[in-house]
Amino acid sequence: MNPAFQLFKKQITHPLKFKLFMLQRLPSALFAGLRVAALDEQQAVVTVKYSWFNQNPFKSMYFAIQLMAAEMSTGLLAFAQVYQRDPAVSMLVIGLEAKFVKKAVGTISFSSKDGQAIDEAIESSLASGEGKTVTCYSVGTNDSGEIVSEYWITWSFKAKKI
Question: Which residues are paired to 103 by β-bridges?
């Protein structure tokens, strides 16, 4: 396993360090209640529980909260791959598509299994010197395993010039 990934995972899965990271970099995600449920080099699972803070007028989870969790499930995989890279690699969301299937109540888990595709895009960008994109899929499921929403998030990666 990649030593930089191990260090990143250790920081993200430590409850206090994760909260400090979120407070510093993603305060809205902290206040919305996003949590990392699982993380390895190939997949990430982010959960969020329906609450007063993240509700919409229809008594379900606001779509923007769902999007934050979906983006984080893909973003953790991407950030883990660029963490402490030499040369450094920039990453940016450049596209988004969403599909809402069912009312989001209870605890919703957003999972992405695109770690390998992200790694390949980054390695290709480093080899060619050009920016590369990858579209990652994140699916949100409720406590019963039913799909509530699906997201296709397109990331761009490019090696930073030294």
Answer: none
> Per-residue confidence of the chain (162 residues) as pLDDT tens digits?
677 788 888 878 888 888 888 898 889 999 999 999 999 999 999 999 999 999 999 999 999 999 999 999 999 999 998 888 888 899 999 999 999 999 999 999 999 999 999 999 999 998 898 999 999 999 999 999 999 999 999 999 998 876
Dihedral sign for Cα 122, 123, 128, 132, please.
Answer: negative
Residue 95, token pair as written in the block: 């596209």
* β-pair partners for 108: 48
Contacts of 102 (CB under 8 A, 6+ apart): 142, 146, 147, 148, 149
54-84: pLDDT as tens digits: 999 999 999 999 999 999 999 999 999 888 8
What are 132's strand-pairing partners? 157
Amino acid at 76: L
Range of the domain at 16: 3-159
C-alpha 134/C-alpha 140 separation (Å) is 20
Number of domains in the chain: 1
CATH code, domain with 80: 3.10.129.10
| Alpha carbon of residue 1 to chain centroid | 20
